[in-house]
Amino acid sequence: MLASFRVLGVAAPQGSKSFKGMVEGKRGQQIPRLVESSKLLPKWRKEVTKQAAIAWRNPPLDQPLVVIMTFTLPKPASAPKTRTTWPDRKPDVSKLARAVEDSLTDAGVFADDARIVDLIARKRFPNEGAGALPSPGVVVHVFAASSHEADVFELDASQPAQLALG
Questions:
Q1: In CATH, what is the architecture of 3-150?
Q2: Residue 142: phi, psi to the nearest 5?
């Protein structure tokens, strides 16, 4: 493993935009003004960047990488307390991952988040399931793609799985 760290706090998605009207572009044309929908994003990105910079004190990684992210989200008060449940509502796990990827690039962990060739991103509630934290946050593990540690599982895309429909 090349790097591993956690960041506590409520994760914010990146990529959902809200239309805020039209503005004049550089050449006088009208272009839409889009802003991030999540008001929590700047604070979350800043905290992830800060924690990553503390954990990573090396030159940026500039090689194929495998990244595993486990997001622990606040469990809604309405969710059952005595059984494991899944955070299968917003925010999208891909948008949570996008915010962390960009923060890791800003912190100098990656030369560019395009170096990620495999990404496993999952959402959990506190203390429920693999990698879940006791409170909201994210755990990030970074591996060299060439390492055997990165071989969590390999799927042969040329042989699609057979689904049994009952």
A1: 2-Layer Sandwich (3.30)
A2: -120, 130
